[in-house]
Amino acid sequence: xxxxxxxxxxxxxxxxxxxxxxxxxxxxxxxxxxxxxxxxxxxxxxxxxxxxxxxxxxxxxxxxxxxxxxxxxxxxxxxxxxxxxxxxxxxxxxxxxxxxxxxxxxxxxxxxxxxxxxxxxxxxxxxxxxxxxxxx
Length: 136
Prior knowledge:
Largest sheet: none
Radius of gyration: 26 Å
Number of helices: 5
Structural class: mainly alpha
Low-confidence stretches: 1-5, 30-46
Distance between the termini: 80 Å
Number of strands: 0
Strand content: under 5%
Shape: flat
């Protein structure tokens, strides 16, 4: 086993190999962190990066829809397109515009969740389907 990594510099974990001293206790990993890291396999449904990507994607879509809807009420269809595309564009940018876009996405997701909850509570989907069938 080599004392050096690929860059020919000692790594922090193997620095004790170069000296006669015992390894530093601060380098050894915390047993709780190791246990929780090994708890779920890498390709499981608990993959936080994939979940974060899906959440950001939903927030980005929500920001575009919310800002597009607001733009439609204020200035018609042209402003709706500009506001929706603009919100999705600045979603990942730093600054006030990115913060506003992300907040609009959060609001849109909250509205969607509340609408689903109300729809399930009052069985609106079934009632609307029955009403549509009775029209003809």
